[in-house]
Task: inverse folding
C-alpha cells in the first residue's frame, strides 16, 4: 500500500519545463507525459503506450502536430489520450486510450491531480501568487531528493536547523534559540509556525540582498498546505523597524520562499524551490546571488536528507525518535498528512486531533 | 519458481568463443564452465568447485592438460566433471563430481541442455545451417540484454516495429502497413509469420548490400522454434522479380537472419544474432556493412527492451496490455512457451490451444 | 534474526584511527561513533542523534571540548552519551541519551562490546601482545571485505589455499601437501591447527624478510579465538635448525600474523591484519616489504571472498558443499561460533560436540 497521499494536486513541473519536446516525470509513482499543444495548452497523460507499455517520452517517440507517436510500433494518441492510429489495420480498438490527468498551470507551476480524476477540483489548489506577480522578482529551481517526502516536510517545518546545517548561509544562533508559536487550522488543513526575532544577526543571504548593515528584525512565518505547498513569509528590516499600524510596511524587505514537495516515489522527492522578493527587482546581481545561495542551501538539505533516507532504510523495526518543542509544527503536519492519506484511501480518519508526541 | 523453460536446448556460445581459456557463461540461471579438450571437444560443467563453491573460471583457476584446477584449494577435475585430486590427502571422495551438461557444437553455435540430462535428445535441436554452410557468408555477434527473454520474443515476432524503432536502417512505412499471415504448428511447436511486400521502399540495409536501386519486392518469412531459435527468411529483389515456378530464384537476394534467445537470468538475456547472405560472398565491405548495421539495429532493440524491463519491474499488479492483429504471432509464441514451461515443470499443459487475446 | 554473534568483544579500529575527528564505523550492523576525549580516552556511542536520527559523524556535526554537537539541529552529547543541550528550550528531556558501548584499547586495537553491556567483561578479551610489544616490529592494516565473516574464517582456518591463491607470495606446494593436526578446546572456545613442514621451499615473503637462502623448516600454528581473533604463530628457520630442548629458539625467525575478523553487516566484514616479527626490527625496508606483501595477499583473499559472497547470494536453497580433512579446523570453528551465537541469543546450545562433516 502506498504511503503517498492520493486525491491531491501536486506540482509536477514549472511551466517553462513543458513545451514541444516530450517531457516525462514520475509523480507519486506514476510516469506522466507532458507536452504542450500547438495552441499552448499543457497536456498530461500516462507515459506508457497501451500496446506494449513503451514510454512515449522515449526516443524515437515524437510529436506530430497535436498527436504523439509511439517510437516502438507507432501507436498514435491525441491530446486527450485517445488513440487515433495503430499499425497494420485501419480500425482502432475503442479501449485504446491513455489515462489522462487533470492539469492546471498556475503561479508558474504545472499542477497535476493524482487519484480519482472525478474528484479533482482546481479551486482547491493553494496559491503562491508572488511567483509570477508584478512587483516581485523570482528565482527558482528543482533539486531531486533521494529521500521520502516526509523527511523534507520535517526539515522545512523546523527551521532551527538553519543554525546548524545552514550556518554561514541563512542560519544564525537566534533561529535555534528563539521559541516558536504554532497554530493548526484542522478544518482548512493548514499549519502555521512563527518565529519572530526582534534583534538578530543578519545572515549573508539577507545582508547581501537587502544591503542592510548591522543587526535586524527577522520574522519567519510558515504557512504549510499539506501535502504539497510550503510558504515561508520572511520579513527582514533594520533593527527597530516594524510595520505600520495600518499594516503597510515600507521599511521591511519581504521574501516569499516557496517549496513544493512532490513525491516521485515512496522514497524520492522532487524538491521545487522558489524565492520571490519585493525589492531590488531589476538587480540581476541580487537575483544571481539569491539563486546560488538558495540552491546551495537546498543542496545542503539534500545531502542531509539523502543520508537520513539511508539511515531509515537500514533501521531496526520499532525505532523511536524523540521530539521536543521545536517539533510541534512538524508533528501537526504529520497528523494532517496522515488524515489526508486515510481520506485518500477512502477510510474514515481516526487520527486524533492532537497526538501527545513531544517528550517532556 | 523459475519462469525459464526447463528441459530444453539453448545456445550458450559461438564455437569460436570456447577454446583453451576457461570460459564461463550463465545460462538459464546456471553458471556453466566451458573449455575445449586438447582433442578439441567442447566440455560443459558447473562453474562451482564442489568444495567451497569457488568459480572454476575465476583466476587463478586454470587448465592443466585435460583437467581444470581450482584456484582456491586446488581441487582438480577431468573433462567429464569427475574430481581427480584434492589437497592434503591422496584419496578423492567418490561424491566429488561437478554437474556435467549435454553439449553439442552445430551450425557455429555451442548448444547446451538445461534440465534433466536424461531427457536430452540432440536430434531435437533446430537447425540454422546457413551459418557455416558453403554458399553463404555470415556475420554474427551477441549483445547482452538487461531484459527478460519474453520481451525479445515479442520484439522479433512483430516486425512492424522496424518502421518506427529501426527507421533509416531496416524499417520503411510498408513494414508497419502490410498485414501479416500467421500459422502455428502446435504439434511441432513452430510459429510462422509472413509479410510479403510486393512494392516497397528499399531500406539502406538491403540497398547497400545488394546494390538494387529503386523499389523492391521484400518478403519476410519468420519461423520461430520456441524457446530459443528464431529464423527470418528474408528475400529482396528488384520490383517485379519473383522466383521461378520451379522454386529456383536466381533473381532474388536471400538473407537468413538468425537470433538465438537465451535467458541468462529471469531478467536478462543473451541476444545472439547472425546474418547469412547468398550474394557478394567475398565482399568484405558488404560483410563489414551488414555487421555494423545489424549490430546497430540490435542495440536499438537493446535500449528499448532494457527500458521495458525497468517499466515491467516497477509496474503495478494487474497491468493490462492491449494486443492487435500484428501481435498474433507473438501471442502464439507465448502460448507455446507457456506449454513448454508447464511440460518442463512436469505438469500437464492446460494452456488452451487458442487464447482470445487480440482486442477487437 | 541476525546471524552475527552477540555478547562478544570485537575489534572496531586501530587506536591510531580514533582521535579528535569524529570517526564512525558499522560494527555488527550497529553504527558506532568513536572519538577521543581531551584526556585521550576513547568513547563509543550510537552514531544516531536521538532527535531525528542524524548521524553524529556526518558534517557539520563536530566536537566542542568533550561534547559532540549534532549538525542538523544542535542536540549536544557528553562522552557518556548523555544529552546536555537541545535547541529552543533550556530543559533537556531526561530520556535523551545515546546508547553507549563498553570499549577497551589494548594491543593496538580498540575493542568494543556488542550485546548486553551488563555482561561485558574486558578480562575475556583475547590477547595479541606482540602488536605493541618491545622486541617486535609490526605492520598492519584493514581491508574492507564485501563478504560475510564466516567466509574469512573458513579461509584462514585452511591455509592449504596459500599454495593456489597465494602462489608466488606465501604459498608453496608443501603447504597444500602437508597434513594438518587439529585440536579443539571446547571449554575455552579455542581451535588449534598445526602444519609443520620440515623441508619446504621458502616463499618470497620469508626469503626476502629473513635473508635465508635455500630450503627451510616452516611451522604454522594457528590459534583461533572465535568469533574475532585469529593468531598464526609462524616459525621459519634454515633447514635442520630446530628450537633448543629448553624452548629457547635463537636460530628461528618468528612472525606473529594476527587477523581480527569483525562483521560490519551480515554480508560484509572488516578484515584487520597485522604482521609482527622478532627480527630485523629496525629495517624499514623489511617493514615496507612485509606490509606490501601481506596487503597483496589479503587483497587476493578479498577478491576471492567477494566472489564467493556473490555466489552464495545467488545460490539455490539446499546447496551442499563437500569437506575433506583440511577442513577439520574450519568446521570446528563453525561449531564453536554456532554455539556462541546460540548463547548470544539466550538459547541453550544444542550444537553437538562433534559434527561428522568431512566426506570420506
Result:
Amino acid at each position: 500500500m502506498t504511503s503517498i497521499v492520493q486525491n491531491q494536486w501536486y506540482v509536477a513541473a514549472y511551466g517553462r519545463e513543458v513545451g514541444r519536446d516530450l517531457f516525462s516525470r514520475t509523480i507519486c509513482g506514476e510516469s506522466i507525459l507532458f507536452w504542450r499543444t500547438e495552441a499552448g495548452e499543457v497536456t498530461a497523460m500516462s507515459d506508457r503506450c497501451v500496446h506494449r507499455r513503451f514510454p512515449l517520452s522515449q526516443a524515437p517517440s515524437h510529436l506530430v502536430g497535436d498527436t504523439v507517436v509511439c517510437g516502438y510500433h507507432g501507436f498514435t494518441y491525441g491530446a486527450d489520450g485517445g488513440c487515433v492510429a495503430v499499425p497494420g489495420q485501419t480500425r482502432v480498438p475503442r479501449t485504446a486510450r491513455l489515462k489522462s490527468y487533470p492539469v492546471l498551470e498556475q503561479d508558474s507551476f504545472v499542477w497535476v491531480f493524482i487519484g480519482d480524476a472525478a474528484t479533482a477540483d482546481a479551486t482547491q489548489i493553494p496559491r503562491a501568487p508572488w511567483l509570477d506577480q508584478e512587483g516581485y522578482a523570482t528565482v527558482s529551481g528543482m533539486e531531486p531528493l533521494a529521500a521520502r517526502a516526509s523527511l523534507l516536510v520535517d526539515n522545512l517545518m523546523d527551521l532551527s536547523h538553519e543554525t546548524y546545517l545552514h550556518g554561514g548561509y541563512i542560519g544564525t544562533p537566534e533561529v535555534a534559540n528563539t521559541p516558536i508559536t504554532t497554530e493548526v487550522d484542522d478544518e482548512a488543513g493548514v499549519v502555521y509556525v512563527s518565529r519572530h526575532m526582534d534583534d538578530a544577526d543578519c545572515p549573508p543571504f539577507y545582508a547581501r540582498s537587502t544591503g542592510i548593515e548591522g543587526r535586524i528584525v527577522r520574522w519567519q512565518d510558515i504557512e504549510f498546505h499539506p501535502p504539497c505547498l510550503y510558504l515561508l513569509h520572511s520579513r527582514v528590516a533594520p533593527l527597530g523597524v516594524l510595520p505600520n499600524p495600518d499594516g503597510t510596511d515600507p521599511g521591511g524587505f519581504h521574501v516569499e520562499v516557496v517549496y513544493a514537495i512532490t513525491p516521485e516515489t515512496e522514497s524520492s522527492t522532487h524538491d521545487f524551490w522558489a524565492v520571490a522578493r519585493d525589492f531590488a527587482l531589476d538587480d540581476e546581481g541580487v537575483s544571481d546571488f539569491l539563486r546560488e545561495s538558495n540552491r546551495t542551501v537546498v543542496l545542503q538539505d539534500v545531502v542531509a536528507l539523502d543520508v537520513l533516507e539511508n539511515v531509515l532504510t537500514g533501521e531496526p523495526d520499532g525505532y523511536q525518535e524523540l521530539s521536543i518543542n521545536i517539533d510541534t509544527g512538524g508533528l501537526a503536519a504529520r497528523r494532517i498528512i496522515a488524515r489526508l492519506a486515510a481520506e485518500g484511501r477512502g477510510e474514515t480518519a481516526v487520527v486524533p486531533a492532537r497526538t501527545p508526541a513531544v517528550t517532556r
Remarks:
- Chain C has two domains: 8-122, 131-344.
- The longest strand of chain C covers residues 253-265.
- The radius of gyration of chain C is 22 Å.
